Amino acid sequence: MSVAFRRENDDEHKEPRFELPIPPGPNLVTRRGLALIEAKVAAFEAGEQNDENKRDLRYWRTRLATAEIAPPPDDEEVAFGSRVTLRMDGGERVLSIVGADEAEPAAGSLGFASPLARALIGTFAGDVVAFGGKSIEILATVPIDA
């Protein structure tokens, strides 16, 4: 039989498993974000060690090793670690600006590198920010850990 028609095993035909991409820039975290990363590492270390879990464990260990707890923001300026109350589209929303691994936009937490977070950082209560063709009024800001 020709070598072209012989298959050693199914593994040689699988798509390669790439490493999980590390977001660029500093790995700023809140205290909650650091605790979440530590919990992920512990869960993967305690779990079954297959190739996918080992890949995920490498990612979370790297994120833990590079985590930097950001200094707390002041009470007036929107910054990393701020909980911001804003008025947009006639309604009020509360958003938190957090690290990349902690972000859950549907739950109101934005990664600090997201476009909306970048537009809000550096503003103060009373400021109006143009974003995506809309006006966003900053109503209040407090540190997340306050």
List the helices and strands in order: EHHEEEEHEE
What number of structural domains do the residues give? 2
Strand residue content: 25-35%
- State mean pLDDT (0 to 100 scale): 89
Strand order of the largest sheet: 5-4-3-7-6
Instruction: Report, as a whole number of angstroms, the end-to-end distance.
Output: 72 Å
Give the low-pLDDT segments. none
Query: What integer value in Å does the Rg equal?
Result: 21 Å
Please give the largest β-sheet: 5 strands, mixed
Helix-residue proportion: 25-40%
> Helix tally?
3
Structural class: alpha/beta
Overall number of strands: 7
Shape: elongated
Set down the secondary structure blueprint:
Blueprint: E1 27-29, H1 31-46, H2 51-66, E2 67-69, E3 82-88, E4 91-98, E5 109-111, H3 115-120, E6 128-131, E7 134-143
Parallel strand pairs: 1-2, 4-5
Antiparallel strand pairs: 3-4, 3-7, 6-7
Helix pairs in contact: 1-2
Protein described:
This protein is of the alpha/beta class. It is 26% helix and 26% strand. It has two domains: 3-69, no CATH class; 82-143, Transcription elongation factor, GreA/GreB, C-terminal domain (Chitinase A, domain 3). It has a five-stranded mixed β-sheet with strand order 5-4-3-7-6. It has a two-stranded parallel sheet with strand order 1-2. A hairpin with a 2-residue loop joins strand 3 and strand 4. Helix 1 (31-46) runs antiparallel to helix 2. The protein is elongated and about 65 Å long. The model has no long low-confidence stretch (mean pLDDT 89).
